[in-house]
Every structure is written in structure tokens, then in C-alpha cells.
Design a protein that fits this description.
The radius of gyration is 14 Å and the shape is globular. The chain has a two-stranded parallel sheet. The mean pLDDT is 93. The protein has helices at residues 2-9, 30-37, 53-57, 92-112, and strands at residues 61-64, 78-81. The longest helix has 21 residues, at 92-112. It has a single domain (2-107), classed as Response regulator (Rossmann fold), CATH 3.40.50. The chain starts with a helix and ends in an 8-residue tail after the last helix. 35% of the residues lie in helices and 7% in strands. With 120 residues, it is mainly alpha-helical. Helix 1 packs across helix 4 (92-112) and helix 2 (30-37) packs across helix 4 (92-112).
């Protein structure tokens, strides 16, 4: 969800998000897909990716969502942790709340770093 929102709000010539997890499923959870469809995103073909040290080394910022010690360590990499509930196994109402929190956090991150579409 965060990568989808980020790549919508950010000027992709300045920054781009890649979605990855420490224990990715084979596909995006159906309730997450539904919640994102409600706000205009089709995640039906999105393929969850494993968060590896090699992938993290390509980043300039790593936003984590509670992975703790499972997150790869990369010296000098700025890490921001958003303490959010995992939507896995939840119904549509709590997933909508998580989605909306993620959208708010992403919008703030993009604005704080000057990555927005209309920012110089």
C-alpha cells in the first residue's frame, strides 16, 4: 500500500518506492487489494518482494513497518519505522483504517523531503 501511494504522490524523477517485506506472501492479500481498489489502485498483478540486504543497499531511505530485527542492516542507511498493524487476517474496516494511515504517512514523507510532483 505504501509503495502504491508513494509512487502516486512523488515525482518519480526524484524518488521511487519499491515494496518489499521480510516474509512476503505469494500475492497481495485479497482484502488489501479490495481496500486499495476502493481508492483507485489495482494491486492484482503486484508481486510481493523479499526485503534482502542487497535490495536495501540500493535504497537511500528504508521505511519499515515493525519488522524489527528481521530488517536488513545497511550502514549509513536512514531508516524510518512506522508502527502500523499488519493487515493480514483483518476485515475490510480495519484494513481501510490502516490504508488511510499509510496514505497520510506517505503524503507527509513525500512533502517533508520535497519529492512531490509540483515541488522544485
Amino acid at each position: 500500500m505504501a509503495a502504491a501511494f508513494f509512487n502516486k504522490y512523488a515525482d518519480l524523477t526524484k524518488a521511487k518506492a519499491v515494496s518489499a517485506g521480510t516474509e512476503p506472501a505469494e500475492r497481495v492479500h485479497p482484502v488489501v487489494q479490495l481496500a486499495m481498489e476502493e481508492v483507485g489502485f489495482d494491486l492484482s498483478t503486484s508481486q510481493p518482494t523479499k526485503l534482502t540486504s542487497a535490495l536495501a543497499e540500493t535504497a537511500s531511505l528504508l521505511v519499515t513497518m515493525g519488522c524489527g530485527e528481521q530488517c536488513p542492516y545497511v550502514a549509513g542507511l536512514k531508516i524510518v519505522d512506522w508502527s502500523l498493524e499488519d493487515p493480514k487476517g483483518k476485515g475490510i474496516a480495519p484494513v481501510r483504517e490502516i490504508r488511510d494511515k499509510i496514505e497520510t504517512l506517505v503524503a507527509a514523507l513525500v512533502a517533508e523531503n520535497g519529492w512531490g510532483l509540483n515541488e522544485e
